[in-house]
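A quick aside before the break. I want you to see a complete sequence-to-structure record at least once, exactly as it would be stored in a machine-readable document. Don't worry about memorizing anything.
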Amino acid sequence: MKVVRGNYVILSLVCLVLGFMLSFSYEYTKSRVEKRTITDKQWNKEYEYRQLLIQSQKENQKLKAELMSKQEKVRKMEASLADKKKAYSDLATEAEQLRMYIGKVKVRGAGVEVTLSDASYIPSEQSATNYIVHEQHVLKVVHELLISGAEAIAINGQRISHRSYIVCNGPVIEVDGTQHSAPFTISAIGDSNVLASALTIAGGVKDQLTGDHVVVDIQQKDDITLDPIFHTNRE
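That is the input. The structure line, written in C-alpha cells, reads:
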C-alpha cells in the first residue's frame, strides 16, 4: 500500500513538472512569435520609410537639376540684357558726343582759352596786313585743338561745328556769316594740359603765329561754358 502511494506521489510530481514545462514552453513560444511579429512590422515600416526617403531624394535631385537649368537660363538672359543695356548706353553716349561735336547741346568743362591779337606795333601802313590776325591763324589754332581732342570750340563765344567756315572780310573775319574783329578768343573744352601742350610745343602753332607777329595768349581754365549753335535758315 505504501509503495502504491509512493508511486502516486512520484507520478504527481512528474505530471506537475511536465505541466510546468509545457506551460513554460507555450508561453516562451508565444512570446517569441509575438516578438517576431512586432519586429517584422517595424522592419516593414522602416523599409517603407526608407523607400519614401529614397523617392524624396530622387525628386529633390530632379528639382535641383531643373532649378540649376532655370538659373542658367536666367543668368544668360541677365547677361544678354546687360549687354543690350551696355550697347544702348554706349549708343546714348555716342549720340550725346555727336550732338556735342556738331554743337547741338550746351557743354561745360575744363579747357583752354586762346586769344589772338594784332601786333601792338606796326612799322608802316604798307606792311600792316602782316601784323594782323587772319583767318589762317584762327584756323591753325582750331585745327590743332581738334586733333588734340577738343570736344567743343567757340570763337568769340560763337560755337562752331563740322560745317563751320571762317573767312577774312577786310579787317574782320566771318564765322558762319557772323563778323568778328580782333582780338579773337578761341575757347575749347577738353583736357587743358593736353590742349595747352599741343599749342606750345616747340615749333608748333604758338611759335608759328608768333613768327607771323600775332600776339598769342593761352590760358588754362577749370570751367568753360559753350552755348549750342543757334540755327539759321541757311542751316
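Two observations worth writing down. The longest strand covers residues 215-226. The chain is about 55% helix and 20% strand. We'll return to this after the break.
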